C-alpha cells in the first residue's frame, strides 16, 4: 500500500530533470499618465464632467442634432412668450422666446459654439506661449530668467478683464478671433509662472544630471526629460482655466465689448435679458444656467485631473 501511494505521488509531480519552469514575464513599467488614467476612470466627478463636456463639444460641432430651428429667425408675435411649443421633438422651443421672438433653446444650443471655440483656442494658445516662456526661464536661469520674469510680472499686473476691454476697443469688428487674441495676449502669464516653477524643480533631478553627463544636447534634455515631467501642473491649471476663459468671454460680451451680432453668444443673450429679469426671468435663466454648467464642468474636470496627477492626494 505505501508503494502504491508513492507511485501515485510521483505521477503527480512533474519531472524536474532537464527542464526549467518558464520565467515570469516582467511587468510593464507604468507611467504617471497610465496611473492617472486608471485613477480618473474610477472618479464619478471626472465621468460626469467628461460626459457634460462631450455633449457640449457635440453641440458645438453639430448643433443641428439638437435643434433644427434657426436661432436668428424671429417672430415678434412671440415677444418674450414663455409658453413653449412641444409639437415637434427638437423643433420646438423648449425655453420660450426672447424679445425679438427668437427661440431661446435654439440660441442656447448655437451659443455653445462661440464659447467653446474661444475657451479651447485661448487655452491652447496661452499654454503654448506661457509654457515656452516658462521653460526657457526655468531651465536657463540667469539673466534670461530675470528678463522673462520681469516681462511676465508686467503683464501679470494688468487685470485680465480690464486689459481685454482696452485691447478689444482697438478692433472695429469684434469676432471670435479678436477675443481669442485679447485673452491670449494677457492670459499667458499664469502658465509661464507655473511652468517655470515646475521646470526649476525637475531640472535638479538625477536623471537630468545623468543625461547631461552622457552628453545629451539641450534640446533633447528639454523635450525628452524636462517637458514630460514638468507638464502635469500646467495641464491641471489649463483645464481649470478653460472654464474661466469661457466665463470671461461671456462677461466681455455681456458688457458689450466682446462678441457682437450676428454672432450668437450666451453673454449677448444675458445682456439682452437683464432688462426684463422681473417680467421674463426665463430669458435670463437658461443662457446663464448653460454658461454656469459649462464652467462648472471644466472646473470639475480640472479638480479630478489635479487629484489624479498628484500622488499625495490619492
From TrEMBL:
Record's bilayer topology term: Multi-pass membrane protein
Annotated Gene3D superfamilies: MetI-like (1.10.3720.10)
Bilayer-spanning residue ranges: 45-66, 116-142, 154-171, 177-195, 226-247, 282-305
Limits of the ABC transmembrane type-1 domain: 112-302
Alphabetical UniProt keywords: Cell membrane, Membrane, Transmembrane, Transmembrane helix, Transport
Location in the cell: Cell membrane
A single Gene Ontology CC term: plasma membrane
Principal location class: membrane
Region annotated Disordered, chain positions: 1-32
Any Gene Ontology biological process: transmembrane transport
Family: Belongs to the binding-protein-dependent transport system permease family.
Annotated PANTHER family: ABC TRANSPORTER PERMEASE PROTEIN (PTHR43386:SF6), OLIGOPEPTIDE TRANSPORT SYSTEM PERMEASE PROTEIN APPC (PTHR43386)
Protein name: Oligopeptide transport system permease protein
